Predict the structure of Post-SET domain-containing protein.
Amino acid sequence: MKTQAMAKAKNARSDCLYPFKPALGNDYPSTRDFDVVPSADGLTMRITARVPFESRVCIAKISGYALSERRLHTLQLSSRIHLYDGWFSGLFPHSCTPNVFLDLHYLEVWTLCDIPAGAPLTRDYANTEDVLFRQFACQCGELNCRGWITGRDEPLNAEGQAFMARWRERKRP
């Protein structure tokens, strides 16, 4: 009997977005609530809501692997520990007006506003990272867009300084 149950569990297909679902409890992201969508160029992925979410609610717990270095898809837990999550929260694109907040103490994702079904989940990278893996030009299109995205304690690199000089020229009336 125990063997049958174990075989069933081994063959059962999990709807959890994390590949290590058997080690996790409930409340982790699943394909019932979220989609992993490739970008137009097929090089990157993002997470979209399959169902609408209300404002100011916890919508998922997050997980991953603890690393001692920053990488693409990592979230800074402390100055020396980074959480690699290439399956869910590490795929949220940046927005200067994000719709989710990552609580990295409790490893939870909270909504900042109502999120309709089909909308991408976005976060502000400067809220979670002191220094980014790589600085970049923002493409969020928000009215409050900062133009060049850095970590919260990071100065603009040379490419960012040149970009911002051109960006400010275009913004002048």
Observations:
- The beta strands are 34-38, 45-49, 58-61, 65-67, 74-76, 82-84, 100-103, 108-111, 136-137, 148-149.
- The longest strand covers residues 34-38.
